């Protein structure tokens, strides 16, 4: 069983003690620390890199949402909000929190919320391990791994995990410079999404969301890492949190302060920031 490393953040001593006692009932938990302010929480998250943060919303100096803003771009753990105020629930949903538990904390309600975090971590770990294995296959097939260039044993290992067809596709992808497929793990199954079918890609902290028609697939990957694997003739980074398939772009309209709005064939409107404008113009030959 994968252990879950938890950081408790609350400016009230009794509240931190309550959460710690509830976590003691979970056999797979290591409480790695406690923080009593937002600024202290940011420092501890960067240093300890916990899997989960039990985070209060309203704290003096820097509130819970401020903590998440400060750590954006670095290690971003799962977040379970534990707070006395229910008016922040929508914002918690917007930042993709695991759950939102109100004080005084009910033991059964907290356990249900923690179970959600445990399952989310288990899925992420499994997908990450398989992704690492597939990346090893790609390196070997590309001659960047084992100097003997023998990837047969690893391809066999992938076949056992994803099926022979998936392994063959992974090996084939590794032989090219740019990825033609992306592995997705969803609802207990694994499958490949063709990059050519992706309309646009959206960053979501340690994850990215692949928009394919009316469907969105979430994978554990940094958008900057994913960008490196995509064909720049087809995909362009238009914002720090957005990559777009250039074949899906219908038009661009000038917006405020030098920014543009990119409009896709299906009507989706995305922002092209000034920071990425020159790069996009070079990619499309403007």
How is this fold's topology laid out?
Elements: E1 4-9, H1 13-23, E2 29-35, H2 38-48, E3 52-55, H3 64-71, E4 78-83, H4 89-94, E5 99-102, H5 107-141, H6 152-162, H7 164-174, E6 181-186, E7 189-194, E8 200-204, E9 207-212, E10 215-220, H8 223-229, E11 235-239, E12 242-245, E13 249-254, E14 260-264, E15 269-272, H9 274-284
Parallel strand pairs: 1-2, 1-3, 3-4, 4-5
Antiparallel strand pairs: 6-7, 8-9, 8-12, 9-10, 11-12, 13-14, 14-15
Helix pairs in contact: 2-3, 5-6, 5-7, 6-7
The average pLDDT score comes to 79
Series of H and E elements: EHEHEHEHEHHHEEEEEHEEEEEH
From the alpha carbons, calculate the radius of gyration and give it in angstroms. Answer: 21 Å
As a percent range, the share of helical residues equals 25-40%
Question: Strand content of the residues, in percent?
Answer: 25-35%
Low-confidence stretches: 146-176
